């Protein structure tokens, strides 16, 4: 399966703009969400083929949201990549335990992100 539609979940408008711009320039269709509630609304509108998930967000954090999405039979097949400033190995391991398929730290290296997305697709 090739990935075309990406949902970016991040509470930072700067990160949303950066990732949207990067992904769009690389041929991806991008939707954004700023929190868990927004993310579930976007999922209901149109199912993405990849979710890029921030961890540190108000309300439900990215780990909790990843677990909720990964355990929902309707969305469990969507790969989730944590995209966060939390760069400790324990954070990466915890993210993967919640259901993430990959983990990348900010500041995002464009080449690394594109390679990871291609590897998932």
Write the layout of secondary structure elements.
Elements (H helix, E strand, L loop, with lengths): L4 E5 L3 H13 L3 E5 L2 H10 L4 E4 L8 H9 L9 E5 L4 H9 L4 E4 L4 H11 L1
Parallel strand pairs: 1-2, 1-3, 3-4, 4-5
Fill in the keyword field for this structure.
about 120 residues; alpha/beta; globular
Task: Give a verbal description of the structure.
The protein is of the alpha/beta class. It has five helices and five strands. Strands 2-1-3-4-5 form a five-stranded parallel sheet, with helices on both faces.
The shape, in one word, is globular
Beta-strand portion reads 15-25%
Mean pLDDT: 96
- H-E string: EHEHEHEHEH
Q: Terminal Cα separation, in Å? A: 6 Å
Helix content: 40-55%
Using only C-alpha atoms, the radius of gyration works out to 13 Å
Number of helices: 5
Summarize the structure in short.
The chain is of the alpha/beta class and 121 residues long. The protein is 43% helix and 19% strand. It has helices at residues 13-25, 36-45, 62-70, 89-97, 110-120; strands spanning 5-9, 29-33, 50-53, 80-84, 102-105.
């Amino acid at each position: 399966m090739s990935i075309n539609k990406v949902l970016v979940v991040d509470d930072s408008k700067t990160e949303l703009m950066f990732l949207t711009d990067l992904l769009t320039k690389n041929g991806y269709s991008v939707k954004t969400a700023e929190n868990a509630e927004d993310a579930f609304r976007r999922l209901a509108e149109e199912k993405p083929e990849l979710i890029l998930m921030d961890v540190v967000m108000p309300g439900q954090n990215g780990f909790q949201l990843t677990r909720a999405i990964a355990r929902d039979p309707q969305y469990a097949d969507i790969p989730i990549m944590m995209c966060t400033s939390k760069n400790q190995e324990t954070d990466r391991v915890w993210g993967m335990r919640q259901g993430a398929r990959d983990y990348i730290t900010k500041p995002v290296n464009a080449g690394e992100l594109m390679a990871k997305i291609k590897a998932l697709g």
